[in-house]
Amino acid sequence: MLKSIFKKAGFLVLGLVINPVLAQEAKTISVFDEVPLNFNGEKTEITNGEYLQSGRIIIKKINVPEYPKGTDVKVKVTVKSAGDRWDKSGSLFVIPNPDKLDFIDVAKGNAEYPKAAGQDKYPGVKLGGDYEPALEVLRFMTPFGVGYYSDEEKNPNIEYNRPVYVPKWEEEVAWEMDVSQLESELTGEILIGAWIDTWTPEGYKISVELEYSGRELSKKLVKPLVNTVYYAGQKHPDLFAFNPLKAEFQLPEKAKNAKLYYITTGHGGHSGGDEFIKLRNTVKFDSETVLETIPWRDDCASFRRFNPSSGVWIRKDSARAYNRQGERIFSEVQERLASSDLSRSNWCPGSKVAPYELDLGDLQAGKHEVLIDIDATPVDGDKLNHWLVTAYLVYEK
């Protein structure tokens, strides 16, 4: 009897091993591997892909296995400078429905943004007409010169930028983020791309990986609503200085456990601009406030090791420290203050930007509205104040 049970158990275990229907395999996919991103600079061949916007955008079609029972998804992005010494905005995105009008059609000169997808003089910032904005997977900010300027032998003056608590400059910066809420848009055949706001021919090199655990996870639907990143045919989005941005959309069916994901960063304007001052963001869904916050990062000094080419100033300060006789005394000191150390509107040079995750509960089928209001500042000459904002809806059937 016992031997019979063991035989049955062994058969069952064997059945689990050989039956692919009962297993979901873990998988890691390399999307880009040190691909140049620049403005009119070096290019490389991208299998099933191409460059847009003079090399500032790369896109690629890839095939990922379907996970019928869902899966965790993690993204990893690695960036290093190939000669660009500045901090720049970056975005990893997917085109959810390539059959619909998207910014790639505009970039290639095959279409224009429909009027319904814009607001005032700002085209393509929200869904509207037959246009759907790109779905942003990860917002990131390049540091000042990591990689190219990390070599102090090739760049001898860079060592004088390095504070005593940084033993060496990093060679690259890498970010990882759990993006499992986007699983439905990151499996099957997908069109994925990356953008860096570089204007130098040297630019950057970027690598991207997608990691799938295979662990069962509830399936979700995703609806892109807003994206003000100026990928193609758009200008610096200072629209919030004039009016809130409103996006209306239809849900064809009831949505369970709905969540609104909101990504926001303020930029430009020099020392007194939106990048460096605290400004309130208010998000309303169906006229109800779901977020009111001042997005701000005050930990930027922790990224110093990624910023070798950041500008540096000397700041006088007072310290209570030990002298050579072992006595604690007050003394005037001079410290390096790097531009990369300064607090900013929800980002630091070398950081990723996590989305706000806003619970909406269950939603009825029909018309809904998202409204985003920011106490922003308009562009003024070379003071290029602007806000990069993304919003998308995630829900279950």
Describe the structure.
With 397 residues, the protein is mainly beta. The protein has one domain: Jelly Rolls, CATH 2.60.120. The protein has two helices and 20 strands. The strands form five sheets. It has a six-stranded antiparallel beta sheet with strand order 2-3-8-5-6-17, with no helix packed on it. Strands 1-9-4-7 form a four-stranded antiparallel beta sheet, with no helix packed on it. Strand 15 (312-322) and strand 16 (328-338) form a beta hairpin. It is globular and about 75 Å long. Residues 1-23 form the signal peptide. This is Peptide-N-glycosidase F, C terminal. It comes from Salegentibacter holothuriorum. GO terms for molecular function: hydrolase activity, acting on glycosyl bonds; oxidoreductase activity, acting on paired donors, with incorporation or reduction of molecular oxygen, reduced ascorbate as one donor, and incorporation of one atom of oxygen. Residues 28-212 form the Peptide-N-glycosidase F N-terminal domain.
CATH superfamily: Peptide-N-glycosidase F, N-terminal domain
Work out the number of β strands.
20
Structural class: mainly beta
CATH topology: Jelly Rolls
